[in-house]
Specification:
315 residues; alpha/beta; globular; single chain; 8-stranded mixed sheet; 10 helices; Alkaline Phosphatase, subunit A; two-stranded antiparallel ribbon
């Protein structure tokens, strides 16, 4: 536990987990330093559109599924919180940066500040902005400027949403390869600025979350979080306790998808544990990660705890 509250930067690659490869060296470097694991999701409603999937999963990350998604006609098991993010988390100042109007609408429902990524791209009209510029601007909004920690900050939490098909400055859709290259470079620049021993490194809580987007039939085998110990005879299953991610308090969750989870790596120098994962991949997280599986709707609580805005979730 840090002796002062952290400031958090969350980078979310929506539907990009399938596109991580060996060339994304900075993502793998982060995984080698971080505490890695999975965020479980419920099964998708039948015939769910890509936009509705995106919003439902984002709402889960903010533990606001019922309060936002259900009123729009989509079933989703989760909390029934109606309060805004600042009301729920001790005045936490949060902002979502995205180019998606749908995500911006979700942010307005959550009561957080809304910033378009395009606003950071005005200095570069050819596509993505210089990574060093964006990283510096993000850290400045968190009160981490020029390698120093400011007493106050504009925000406690910045949540960056990037996904396949994002447009920049009204230009053509960006491909998954474009998005991945940029996220990889951005993570690398932030790691360099928050390197161990720096003032920033001890106060910045960095999370990288990647989702798989729409699940496919093969995912049930290739991307299953279940282990051989979890697969038991139905005659004996009642004798074994439920995995914690399948529970909500003392009540079993009715709709848990055991495959295609979000991949999450969290790092803060001297605060988060370091596990044995060396690459940002499903296989490595399953075999070597320390965080195992938690429900996606607990993610915001984990981050808020590091900001001293919420009690600890779990052990």
């Amino acid at each position: 536990m840090a002796d002062k509250p952290s400031r958090a930067l969350v980078i979310f690659g929506d539907g990009l987990a399938r596109f991580v490869d060996q060339s994304h060296t900075h993502l793998h470097a982060l995984a080698s330093l971080a505490s890695c694991g999975f965020l479980s999701l419920p099964n998708a409603p039948p015939s769910e559109s890509e936009e509705k999937r995106m919003i439902r999963e984002l709402a889960l990350l903010f533990d606001a599924c019922d309060s936002f998604v259900n009123k729009n006609g989509d079933g989703c098991e989760g909390s029934s919180q109606k309060k805004s993010i600042p009301e729920r988390f001790m005045g936490m100042k949060a902002a979502i940066l995205t180019n998606s109007s749908s995500v911006q609408y979700l942010g307005s429902e959550l009561g957080v500040s809304l910033l378009r990524l395009e606003e950071l791209m005005q200095m570069n009209h050819l596509g993505f902005p210089p990574v060093d510029f964006v990283a510096s601007e993000l850290l400045k909004m968190l009160g981490l400027q020029d390698g120093k920690i400011q007493d106050t900050s504009e925000f406690d939490l910045l949540f960056i949403h990037m996904g396949v098909g994002d447009k920049v400055n009204g230009e053509k859709d960006k491909t998954a390869s474009d998005e991945m290259k940029y996220i990889d470079a951005l993570v690398g620049d932030i790691l360099q600025k928050a390197q161990p021993g720096s003032e920033i490194g001890s106060r910045l809580h960095l999370s990288l979350v990647m989702s798989y987007g729409n699940a496919f039939k093969d995912d049930e085998c290739n991307l299953s979080v279940l282990t051989s110990k979890d697969v038991k005879s139905s005659d004996l299953s009642a004798l074994f306790p439920h995995q914690s991610y399948t529970m909500m308090g003392e009540v079993p969750r009715n709709d848990v998808r055991h495959h295609s989870p979000m991949l999450a790596a969290q790092w803060q120098y001297g605060v988060t544990r370091k596990d044995k994962a060396e690459t940002f991949s499903f296989k490595e997280f399953k075999e070597q990660g320390s965080n195992l599986v938690i429900p996606a709707d607990r993610f915001i609580h984990e981050v808020a705890f590091k900001l001293w805005k919420a009690p600890k979730y779990g052990a």
